[in-house]
Design brief:
- Helix content is 47%, strand content 8%.
- The protein is built from eight helices and six strands; from the N terminus they run H-H-E-E-H-E-H-E-E-E-H-H-H-H.
């Protein structure tokens, strides 16, 4: 027992003084180990009734957090008291982990009756009010079907890529290789989630044909 207590004391008072170099392969692993504590804290608070998740009929216990590395979305039912509990959890996570949450770069999205209390939620979390669509893991998220304008990022990638290529200095075969290996792969990520609108497809075809005809 004495040895176990000494080990626990050593762990509690061990302080890290330096981190790893930028780009070190250990960095994301260490980050994931620490940030996983946030999901644990939220799940424990949910079990104790301090916060309440969404769609409990679809997700066991209700959906409260989606997390991929440093991209995190928190879900809460409309309840200012439980929202205060969530803010306390985030503050406790900062104290325990040493990580800092940039609330000024975070956003609050309110729907339904919560929209009437949006100002109180933004003040509570010191966040700005977000608008749709927002991007999560590079994908625009919206409660409705994406409009043509929401695909502007894909069109911009095409234009930026083509502006750096000198099509006149390439053979027809060289241009075909670039189109097949580079251009056509740019929208694949978005297309794997959403159906591309006809207008966007026509614009992409226009970019490709214009470069091919140079």
């Amino acid at each position: 027992m004495l040895r176990l207590e000494l080990m626990i004391t050593w762990v509690l008072f061990f302080q890290t003084q330096r981190g790893v170099r930028q780009g070190d392969p250990l960095s994301p692993i260490l980050f994931n180990l620490v940030v996983d504590m946030l999901a644990t804290l939220i799940n424990r608070a949910k079990e104790n009734g301090q916060i309440k998740g969404l769609v409990p009929h679809l997700v066991d216990g209700g959906l409260s957090i989606l997390q991929y590395a440093d991209d995190t979305i928190l879900f809460m039912d409309h309840d200012l008291e439980k929202a205060t509990n969530m803010k306390l959890i985030l503050c406790a996570f900062e104290q325990l982990s040493g990580l800092k949450i940039n609330f000024h770069k975070s956003e609050v999205f309110c729907y339904g009756k919560a929209k009437e209390e949006e100002g109180r939620y933004t003040r509570l979390f010191s966040c700005k009010s977000g608008g749709m669509p927002f991007r999560y893991l590079g994908i625009p998220m919206h409660h409705r079907r994406l409009a043509n304008g929401d695909w502007k990022t894909v069109e911009t990638k095409f234009e930026r890529k083509l502006s750096s290529w000198k099509g006149k200095l390439m053979s027809m075969g060289g241009r075909l290789v670039l189109i097949n290996s580079v251009l056509t792969s740019l929208p694949i990520f978005m297309m794997s989630f959403f159906e591309v609108p006809k207008g966007v497809l026509e614009k992409i075809d226009y970019f490709i044909s214009r470069f091919l005809a140079r």
